[in-house]
Amino acid sequence: MFSRIRRLATSTATIKMNYLYLDTCSTDDFMCNPVYLTGVHKSNESLRLHTNAVNTTTDKKGYLGSTLFWLGQGSASVVKIKTLEELCHKNGESLSYHSRRDERAFIADSGGDYVVIFHKCHDIDFPFINLDE
Question: In this structure, is residue 85 part of a structural domain?
Fold first, then answer.
């Protein structure tokens, strides 16, 4: 993901700081904008993040809802697909992929009336949600 983001960062594509991108390959949930996290704290562990776009180290974590994210300097905020699957499966629901349905990419159903739709970003071709909405 980050290699594509870096390549597009020099073109007309823009990585948005208020977007949370769904990354199907990431091993960690990572937030680069602290304004969306609560309970930010120093961890006993640290993360060394190596990507094509940025190398960074952080020992800070915070919560987006009930999900714990690493907080540090980076080019994009990402949630790993495994995190979404676990949140959906916890309530017996599912994460599904719909590539042609109203340009929607992933639909996370976590039960009840709570459904999150990750739309496909046409600039960098990754699913995202706008954290300001």
Answer: no
| ∠ CA 91-98-130, rounded to 5° | 75
The number of distinct structural domains making up the chain is 1
Q: Whole-model pTM?
A: 0.82
CA pair distance 30, 36, nearest whole angstrom: 12
Record the tokens describing residue 91, joined without a space: 């309530």
Sequence-distant (6+) residues with CB within 8 A of 29 are 64, 67, 68, 69, 70, 78, 79, 80, 83
Does 56 fall in a domain? Answer: yes
- Smallest CA-to-CA distance from 21 within 98, 128, 132, 131 is with 128
Residue 2 pLDDT class (50, 70, 90 cuts): very low
Residues recorded for the chain: 133
Q: Residues with Cβ < 8 Å from 117, sequence gap 6 or more? A: 104, 106, 107, 108, 129
Does any domain span residue 46? yes
CB 93, CB 110: distance < 8 Å: yes
pLDDT in tens, 9-37: 444 567 889 999 998 888 899 999 999 99
